[in-house]
Predict the 3D structure of the following.
Amino acid sequence: MTIRKLTNTLFFISILFSSFTFGQVGINTSNPQGTFHVDGGKNNNLSGTPTAGQQADDFIVAPDGKIGIGTTTPAAKLDLKGNMILGAADFANNAPGYSSVMRDNATGELKVASSSSGNSFPINYVTFQINNVNRDWISDYNTNIDTANYTVTIIGSTFTSNNGTKQLVMSDPSYGDFGPANMYAFQNAGTWRLFANYPGATTMNGINGSWTFYCLVINNSIVKNLGTSSIDLAGGKTGSIAIPAGL
């Protein structure tokens, strides 16, 4: 055996002995930071903790089984620092049983979008059929949908009086022309409520009617409340306001 071969053999044996002794294996580094550590760029320091830039091309398996890519201190089962590319994947094709994955902006963790009840769909569709209301008026219809978990928005509606017509008449001549249907969802005591009315109008002969509301119920995990933007046009008909903070 030549001296060079003997030297290489002894070097390899020393690596194995070090790995078995300390339970750590390093590839391209003699300073492994975990059970298995690959320094892709061969740029880590010989001692101490690699810098953030040096860790960017590293792969590590920590003693607790966590895997880090681009970090030597993974905080989850798989901790990826950087972008990920997903190649061709099957389409859900509207099949049931799928959830949306969201990113926690504070920790970077990926989580399934879900309400406290376990509903994992970010956007839900529901129809409220409300019959025999006070003529054309609903002042406070409680959907009992929790405002902490969801945002409710009305995307469409229909109204029919109980005699089968949609005919409305002026309820008070002092109003002048009555306006179109005024409807919205609002919050009260922790739940979403519905309001609907034809201002200044009522049904023919005071007959009660029925409303149908088509609503989207959106999981608050994908909704950001930007508050209220207010401006006084001082009697004008045009204006401008600063973009809402947070957009």
